[in-house]
Here is the input.
Amino acid sequence: MKRSYLGVALLCAVFFCNIFFTQKAVNAYYFEHYRMVIIYACCNLLLFPLAVWIYIRERDVQ
Amino acid sequence: MEQDNKRDNNHIPFNEDNYTHNIRKNNERKLDRRGFMKTLVGAAGIFAVSTLPWGTLAAKELTGLKNKSYQPLKITDINALQVGDAVEFSYPGEHDSALLIRLGENEYKAYQNACTHLKCPVFWSKEKDEMVCPCHHGIFDARTGIPTAGPPKRPLPEILLSKEQGAIYAIGVKRYET
Here is the structure.
């Protein structure tokens, strides 16, 4: 069977964004940019359904 | 791994009679592509949950739930307080003694003057230009409230001031950051 590694690559990108947003959120908190903290936290929250969607899409193709 | 499964599934019952066909687990720790993707999805979930506390703390700060409101209180008239002098008052409650110091012509500082060591009242020493706790000789810098000598380790809580119509008013207590 031909495997597609697109999902793996996309999920790696999602993972990278997760690390990025978490780091940014914590930093913004300590610099008291509270609005940015909320924005980054929301981004992180939105990444989870995205990751689930990427996984399900990849699984159903097989 | 796929081939292993196929072989087993095609021989039911297995052609061994010792029921040990399932002890071979050579590949049980192998992280295949799908397992890796599942791990990443789980990680995304954990990251999402882990930023929630930061988000709530930030939301709390934004909505101002942590800022208490205080009644303004007139401390003294400016004429009654010479440069370099201090006056005692109590704020916000009647048992929270505090100290207003006029450091310069237009420089006022006020602190709750319970020493952060053992709550002795701190006095303003005009000669030494510092705040002194007589109990154990704790010294505080009058400009910042930071302890400079002696046992106290934490700064005095600062009181926010405003100047209106020739009088000094206390309008709040600065949020205490340890």
Notes: The longest strand of chain B covers residues 97-104.
